[in-house]
Amino acid sequence: MVSSEKEMAASCGVEWRINMPDGSSEILTPEKGLVGRVIFGIKCMVLGLVWKIWDFLKKAWDLAIDDPKKVIHCLKVGIALTVVSLFYYMRPLYEGVGRNAMWAVMTVVVVFESTVGATIYKSLNRVTGTFLAGALALGIHWIASQSGEKFEPIIMGASIFLLASATTFSRFIPSVKARFDYGALIFILTFSLVSVSGYRVEKLLTMAYHRLSTIIIGTSFCIFISMLVCPVWAGEKLHLLAAQNLDKLANSLQACVALYFNDDNDDMAIDHKNLQGYKCVLNSKATEDSMANFARWEPAHGRFNFQHPWRQYLKIGASIRRCACCVEALNTCLSSENQAPEHLKKQLSNICLRVGSSCSSATKELAMTLKTMKKSAKTEFSIEELRSSVKDLQKELKSLPQSLVNQLHTAKAQQSAENEQKERVSTSTAVSLVEIIPLASFASLLIEVSVRIEGIAFAVDELAKLADFKSAEDEKIKQIQPIKIQPTQQ
Amino acid sequence: MVSSEKEMAASCGVEWRINMPDGSSEILTPEKGLVGRVIFGIKCMVLGLVWKIWDFLKKAWDLAIDDPKKVIHCLKVGIALTVVSLFYYMRPLYEGVGRNAMWAVMTVVVVFESTVGATIYKSLNRVTGTFLAGALALGIHWIASQSGEKFEPIIMGASIFLLASATTFSRFIPSVKARFDYGALIFILTFSLVSVSGYRVEKLLTMAYHRLSTIIIGTSFCIFISMLVCPVWAGEKLHLLAAQNLDKLANSLQACVALYFNDDNDDMAIDHKNLQGYKCVLNSKATEDSMANFARWEPAHGRFNFQHPWRQYLKIGASIRRCACCVEALNTCLSSENQAPEHLKKQLSNICLRVGSSCSSATKELAMTLKTMKKSAKTEFSIEELRSSVKDLQKELKSLPQSLVNQLHTAKAQQSAENEQKERVSTSTAVSLVEIIPLASFASLLIEVSVRIEGIAFAVDELAKLADFKSAEDEKIKQIQPIKIQPTQQ
Questions:
Q1: Which entry of A4, A201, B416, B421 is 20 to 30 Å from A184 by CA?
Q2: Confidence of residue B1 (pLDDT cuts 50, 70, 90)
Q3: Name one GO biological process term (chains A, B) (predicted).
């Protein structure tokens, strides 16, 4: 899409081609004369605009197809807003809640986020911020009103200045920013609004009560809709993101090793999309952080308890990124100028492919552990298999020089036959040894990747302990037992 | 701070110790009896609370000392809010702008951000969103009012549902999210508020006019204060962040190489803080993205034009992170189990230290190019020096096996003297070759780092072209010339 846009941009001023639905195309050529040029210019503009809108709509459509949950969220917002508007349309409610119904509408617009956690976070922050600021503003307003007409504006102004500055500063403190950023904003907002209104409006208390009650109506409505109608949980998203990142890393790793050794058996693995998967992993920190922040506001849902250890996912994410960093270094070996010759690569090909595939399957097993939330003996087996394959690789690396020594001997034999200088022997060996370096560093990076996968395994294991994952085998036995018993019962 | 908190948490229930200002300490022991225990419990709680508040204040104080610009921002927000409140306090303005003055207050609270770019982004989005939504809502309101009392609520409800859903969806599209996220929110907000109010309030047009004018007053006030009083420019922050990241990377790299070869001359470089600098670089993507988004809203300021190529900083940032990824891999060589023996390390020590320091100085030169925004011949020299040192390292790597061959010959001589099997020769060589692998991979990672530094240099050079950096040498000549000319003129 972008490339075709560039083509169009490049061709602008040269020629404009319209592609007809039947496959033919028509070229727009600029007409001569002022009127002709103006018409051509307008045609150009309109077509450009149509193209841009078409492009935008196509992107939006792709996005909707790619993630239907986003569409559902939009419909939920639409429904929520329309329903809340009833509070204003319906006369009985109008008389009860009055003009302040606009606060309910405003609350729905501002508070309704795409995940349940974010909605609860904003709702609780909004209600608490409004309540605290309202109470404080009323208190200060009372003090100010007792101190005479001259001092009243001074006290109000000073209190606004001090509280606004202090609260704004608190938003820079990381622990406040993570949990109460929105609440602090609402605190400043409500405090200044109530202070300012308090100077004019009578029945301040009634207004404050109405405003708070409409906000509570709005927020609880948002929380219910977001939790009951196709809920999107931040915690679940975070959980799935970790599992997806592990899968991407596994595919990326396998593709990289297969491509390095030109492994034809593994055509499926060598896919450009798979190969570049680690890049998504490297850039996922911001999403993980915000999801973890929202997840802790969520009640128990699905397989997750209220006190699910969401922070541990950040540790898992960090260890996945550390591994992705190493896969990135591994990937550059593919495009490096210095490549080991094919005959050397062949010597390590089998064992490296084995290490690569056992790295990949261990990572996939870890992803499976996360997805199913069940500890499986398979994971331990795959880690053991990874360790043993790495040990074999290290052995092969040790035995690799032997073949080089054999080459040296062959070279020596040739040399003594030809009676040449000693110098030449060492040169021929040297070339072989320099040639080995790219392969050796590829292999040692692969070993480092395996070490980091063990780091991920450790973090996942910690999560399994903290969140009390069940053992997959125990469950299977439980499932099998009733089936075995049933026939005897019959 | 955290550790002492943990200590306290661990000791809670066992003993409470109060540290007096004179250095002595008093242990609180639980008294016997119910009353004693209750008093002890309350003491515990109060002390814990005091400790938490003290800790929070200390963190806030450290933050303020660390970045006084944040304090200035808070004072600016305080001043802006207090001044805007005058719009409401002062009677003539009250009569002009009326109750809608609260929209000015609300605008200041919501729109005032810590950087000029973010403030302008929010201001323009708020004004445009309010205007478009207001105009559309008035239009639909007019159509609805023409179609009879029955259809009016249906038309209003349907339009709210459709527009809210569509606009919410547009916020998921990356290009909209980056530029108009806040505007879309305000669009939904204003549209529903005007639609809902329109059903009850007469003089809708006057109200809309007043609301828009107060918002324009609020936003322009925010923009002026943020631009005129100690402005913090997002663009400048982005620019400095790139330079800082380069410096951190340079220090991290130098410390890593020095530590690997136990270089005692470079004690200054081996600093844990320096060594870990690359980690900040790896995590800077989110900040860079948001700064680049805000920077494009900013007018020309300082050394930056309006159309300064801010997007190029994202490319520079990406190339810096690619390099940091490689430095991370280099860093793990420090803690790896397989280490090359000291006598091998010594053979490459000098040249590797040279490559490390030339990598580091090239990176620092690039940082200097960014800081001064002047192209210097020094940068090219340092890149040339980097290339030549890398070539020398590659040569040394080639000549390194020669010494191993010499070792082999010595071993062979010993062996023929002792009449032992051929097997043993190859084993003794093999050990040396396996030992070389960690060193070889360190060296090839170092070479890869140098390649990526050239990538950064390329990105910085592109920026220099796009932003038309002046040459540092030309400016010096210009500065020197007038001094030379002056005496002859006199």
A1: A201
A2: very low
A3: monoatomic ion transmembrane transport
